[in-house]
Specification:
The chain is mostly helical. The chain is 66% helix and 0% strand. It has one domain. The longest helix is centred in the middle third of the chain and has 33 residues. The relative contact order is 0.12.
């Protein structure tokens, strides 16, 4: 019973880490806003650097959010003993490590 409570606590911890991915998004967007405003002030223009930095921060924050969320899900699956699933951007039957062909015929000796 003790192991079950510890496992549940760990899973709740991993779920909280996955939830923190939203906070990471907020940090990236706010950093882009500050950098953009600073660049606008340095070049004495109004807006283009801020808008550009915010637009660049969108894919960065999405990537970061997905990495954090999928990483915590993978940790939960490993703790439960399940086979970790491949991330959605990787094909299901694409090997993660180079593996020899299983159905390949063994090499023959030619005389």
């Amino acid at each position: 019973m003790f192991g079950r409570k510890a496992s549940r606590a760990n899973n709740l911890l991993y779920a909280a880490i996955a939830g923190l991915s939203g906070c990471a998004t907020l940090v990236v967007v706010l950093a882009a806003l500050v950098v953009g405003l600073w660049l606008d002030a340095q070049f004495v223009v109004r807006g283009p650097f801020t808008i550009g930095a915010l637009l660049i921060s969108i894919p960065i924050s999405l990537y970061l959010m997905m990495r954090i969320a999928f990483g915590s899900v993978r940790m939960i699956q490993i703790r439960l003993g399940d086979e970790p699933t491949a991330p959605p951007w990787r094909a299901a039957n694409t090997p993660t490590v180079a593996q020899p062909e299983r159905d390949a015929a063994p090499p023959t000796e030619e005389e």
